[in-house]
Design goal:
Elements lengths: L9 H4 L5 H14 L6 E6 L3 H10 L4 E7 L4 H4 L5 H23 L2 H12 L6 H8 L3 H13 L8 H7 L4 E5 L10 H5 L3 E5 L7 H4 L1 H13 L1
Parallel strand pairs: 1-2, 2-3, 3-4
Helix pairs in contact: 2-3, 5-8
Length: 221
């Protein structure tokens, strides 16, 4: 949003994967593609679904896929019923005037949530300041949609197990609850799961050097 995008509102764009995100990335890749240049798609967290979609849709443009701290393989290959998503959206919208000021805009809660679910060590002031200074008003629809499960409306089993032929790397931090999840490696055609000795769920921020080194090694293989 801060780079010129528009908030994604399910009322305007429907109850489906926000394909416009993938198409925007594809347009950017085409704009910068020259001399048969290929791209490496790198995602963190729930944006794994976007990375999988991009890689599956663009075999001639994407050479490799890196999923950092993705959802579990079971979550990626299952779906949330639309009626449940609609109910979640209704409830979250009904309480947003209370929830956002008291919880999501509260630095104490952001720190508590980050330390509990995102970071292996305590989150730092720079992280908290970045979260607190974000444009919350314009991003509320996207936050509500994400927490309602809109991105989980369908399975990505076909893309993961059949469509994607490119090499894939799954990076998992040492304190990630999914550290024993090897289904990606077992089910995808050309996938390696690598566990780092640091971090939890935001490895690019928690352990940038280890994160960078793992990707460099993957590219050179």
């Amino acid at each position: 949003i801060e780079n010129g995008g528009t908030p994604w509102n399910p009322d305007d764009r429907g109850m489906f994967f926000p394909l416009t995100w993938a198409r925007a990335c594809e347009a950017l890749m085409l704009e910068h593609s020259s001399n048969n240049k290929k791209f490496i798609v790198v995602t963190n967290g729930a944006l794994a679904r976007l990375g999988v979609s991009l890689t599956a849709r663009n075999p001639s443009l994407v050479s490799r896929l890196v999923l950092c701290s993705p959802p579990s393989y079971q979550d990626m290959t299952s779906s949330v019923p639309q009626k449940d998503i609609e109910q979640n959206l209704f409830l979250l919208r009904a309480v947003q005037s209370i929830v956002f000021p008291l919880v999501l805009d509260n630095q104490f809660f952001v720190r508590f949530f980050s330390n509990l679910f995102l970071f292996s060590e305590e989150s730092d002031d720079e992280w908290l300041e970045e979260i607190q200074t974000a444009d919350k008003e314009s991003s509320r629809s996207a936050v509500i949609a994400f927490n309602a499960g809109v991105l989980e409306h369908r399975s990505y089993e076909e893309e993961l197990e059949q469509t994607i032929q490119q090499p894939a790397l799954v990076l998992i931090g040492k304190d990630d609850a999914k550290i024993k999840d090897i289904e990606y490696e077992k089910s995808m055609k050309n996938c390696k799961v690598q566990r780092l000795n640091v971090g939890q769920n935001v490895l690019p921020y928690e352990a940038p050097i280890e994160f960078k080194n793992a990707i460099q090694q993957f590219i050179m293989e």
